[in-house]
């Protein structure tokens, strides 16, 4: 296994939920303050800032100014929701190279407050470049993922019930999490009876649209020794971009970006998939998680649906996934990657939370998905031994 | 079941060298794709270079109008004001002559079905629309 030289020492969240009334930058502050307090550091200690946003302007500059920090290492790579997994990879490189000592990865978006419940691009602007060939067809974000789901269903024996099982499992996990936005139990029939958004994806196959912010603090193992915190080691990290628009995805039934990013992360960690105890896999839609289960190799091609239907992915199943309720039930402010990390860290530390897993996990795999199954970031985290 | 066509094609694109020829071809009833003269592969949407062999030796070539549905969905809710009044409508990714093209689907057809490409004129733009082959 890899040397445990870079560790996560702090995690934190802002308030989240339907609408917080906070601005995006305030949510960044709330999350960062919480993560820094979690490890006894302050804003003055931060010399590496890792954050991106879809808001106009120079986000990293705006954020540094707003928070009142002057970082000398900055990364605002904008690949979408998987960006915070990629930031872990980049923060590790910067810390190992001695270029920064306290890396703050932070996200905040007042998505619900600022945009309402509508998902997807609205095409109010004049399209230029590649987007002009697809924008006039009005394909929504949900529609793009629906194309992948339809293809998967046509190529394999995947059914709407299989997809629904992923939503049911996420909701089952959310029942234990008092912070989760949706906490009513649901059944497969409930998912299938919920309004269709883009065939075959129902509203309950889609993630929430909430406000929220999250943050993670990384330091070297040496620095962590001075802090009163339970560190979690970054054992491996990887990134891959495959395309931008779903139209350019080579095989809509294979999440190639997640496959490549996970393979890089697992190889660096020097462990096998059977070593992983808990899975935090991006669930913008049920199909996203299903494709990721197959991409990471937990399920063979076409086996993701039947596997989900066994209940194995719930907190008390053999392969707990999205233990906080995920984007389908807990929160999803637009780009959710940082929350995968926060949840994995809490479970690995054995934090005293109501949704703590009965069997304390030793190793976690987090895999983020961006855009239209476009890019991925994968991170392997482990208890410090 | 689809209502067709949508009310509007949305804001007009900002044309570039590749796209001007593409949209002009569409208005003339030709569905164009990039054709590489070095590796002989086609690509859609058109680019100023070949995304497979990276050669700049590319031109636009018309595709055959008969294809097969690679995937398809019916959009029933959208935040897009241009499309909200006309939901539900169907969008298909169709394989024609080795490339995949996104267009409207007018009618009912599933993955693997044979379709024929035509154009619908919206806001002075000719957009691909696929109809089930008879």
- CA-atom Rg of chain B in angstroms: 15 Å
Average pLDDT across residues of chain A?
95
H/E element sequence of chain A: EHEHEHEHHHHEEEHEHEHHHHEE
Largest interface: which pair? A-B, 39 and 39 residues
Counting DSSP H or I runs of 4 or more residues, the number of helices of chain B is: 1
Question: What separation lies between the terminal Cα atoms of chain A?
Answer: 11 Å
CA(first)-CA(last) distance of chain B: 18 Å
* Approximate strand percentage of chain B: 35-45%
- Strand arrangement within the widest β-sheet of chain A reads 3-2-4-7-1-8-11-10-9
Sum this structure up briefly:
Chain A contains 13 helices and 11 strands.
What does this molecule look like?
- The complex is a heterodimer of chains A (385) and B (134).
- Chain A has a 9-stranded mixed sheet with strand order 3-2-4-7-1-8-11-10-9. Chain A has a two-stranded antiparallel ribbon with strand order 5-6.
- Chain A has helices spanning 24-39, 59-67, 83-96, 111-115, 141-155, 160-174, 188-193, 221-224, 256-269, 286-295, 304-309, 326-329, 337-349; strands at residues 6-13, 48-50, 73-75, 103-109, 196-198, 201-202, 212-220, 232-241, 278-281, 363-370, 375-383.
- Helices cover 34% and strands 17% of the residues of chain A.
- By secondary structure, chain A is an alpha/beta fold.
- In chain A, helix 2 links the parallel strand 2 and strand 3 (73-75).
- In chain A, helix 6 packs across helix 10.
- The model of chain A is unreliable at 119-123 (pLDDT under 50).
- Chain B is mainly beta and 134 residues long.
- The two termini of chain B are 18 Å apart.
- The mean pLDDT of chain B is 91.
- At the A-B interface, helix 5 and strand 5 of A face strand 4, strand 5 and strand 6 of B.
